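Hey, I'm writing a tutorial for new members on how sequence and structure tokens pair up, and I'd like a real worked example in the thread rather than a made-up one. If someone can provide the structure for the chain below, I'll link this post from the tutorial.
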Amino acid sequence: MKTNKQKKGINKMITQNEFLLNHNELYILLYNGNLQVALNAFQEDRNQLEQLPPQQIRLYLSSLNHGIYNYILIKEQVSLHDCCTKNEQLLIQCSSANFASIGNSIITNYAYCKDYLVEKHENEHIKNAITYIHNHLDENISLQSVSEAINLNHCYLCDLFRREVHMTFGEYVLKQRIRLAKQLLQTSDLSTSFIAMRCGFNTASYFSTCFKKQEGVTPSSYKRG
């Protein structure tokens, strides 16, 4: 019969394993597009992680990496193998000093994984169109230019976007431009003007207007966190 001390030890071990291996809430947040909330959830674990030895920190981050990978694989039948491997390479350099930035990178890499945005769609025309869009976000993209690039009638492509992507072509392009801008604002020290240009906006003021309409804050406020 186990003593109270032994029972407490077992319960403590179970609780710690749950903390190290179960990140279900974070998977759900990330899958539903709540990147900032997912990053905040990871930051809430940071204080506890700082008290652990490096091997347990790496266990936490490795289980986080593979957990997100498996969650998306099950939900969407999409394998993000390259993203998972890239994150595993980050873990090789993991230490008590840099684990927080590595954890943020793992989460952000999945959130902005272009493969996921393409491969989640079954229609090959949509895959081709989305691939083209993501490779030319800094250019003047139009329905006509994308249609010509993938050799498809523009009216048919317009209808496909509404049916397969559940938004218009223009709405999708704007969404992905804002998405790229958010990534650059979070991970770089680039100026707002440069980010506007990099994401295909004609002027910084127009970029700021579109960003605030989509996100509720200006690009500068978003960058400050």
